[in-house]
Amino acid sequence: MIVAAVGESDRSEQVVAEADALADAFDEETHVVHVLSPMEARKIEQNATESSTMELDDDPDDGEGAAQKIAAAATVGSGATPVGLVGKASERIIAYADEHDARYVVVGKRKRSPTGKAVFGSVTQSVLLNADQPVLSVM
Q: If 0-12 CB within 10 Å is exposed, 13-18 middle and 19+ buried, where does residue 129 land?
């Protein structure tokens, strides 16, 4: 299996495309993973319960449901499986890859100054440094 870790950005399509190319080359399936922070998940849950105009089908059961919707949006045109998780992004991506014996992890990357990386951290950097699998970083 190939794990494509996506965020809410226009780079998600590129990440999924690269993951699908690897999956095709190695006859594997692609899992598109999006991770919401616990704070983001709580905000989504609060907004869903406070909103009386949402239909029940549109109301995610929890943050994982909302994260799965984001992952599903990135899989349009792909045969990939969307996966929504809640937690610290780098840790959850690595744990998911380990639990499912992933062959590769594909991540997106954005330009950041060295100071920005040191102060704010980087999911991509953390996955690159800590994953047991080979990691492909897509610009």
A: exposed
List the structure tokens of 59.
């109301």
pTM of the predicted protein model:
0.81
State which residues form the domain around 29. 2-138
Question: For residue 41, what are the contacts with CB-CB under 8 A and spacing of at least 6?
Answer: 62, 63, 64, 66, 67, 86
User: Which CATH number belongs to the domain containing residue 40 in this structure?
Assistant: 3.40.50.620
Q: How many domains does the chain have?
A: 1
**For every residue of 62-73, which 3-state class applies, written as one string?**
CHHHHHHHHHHH
**Residue 60 binned pLDDT confidence (cut-offs 50, 70, 90):** very low
Q: Binning pLDDT at 50, 70 and 90, where does residue 99 land?
A: very high
| Highest averaged pLDDT of the listed ranges 34-38, 46-50, 101-105 | 101-105
Q: Which residues pair with 106 in a beta bridge?
A: 4, 136
Give the CA count within 13 Å in the CB-facing half-sphere of 74: 34
End-to-end CA distance of the chain: 22
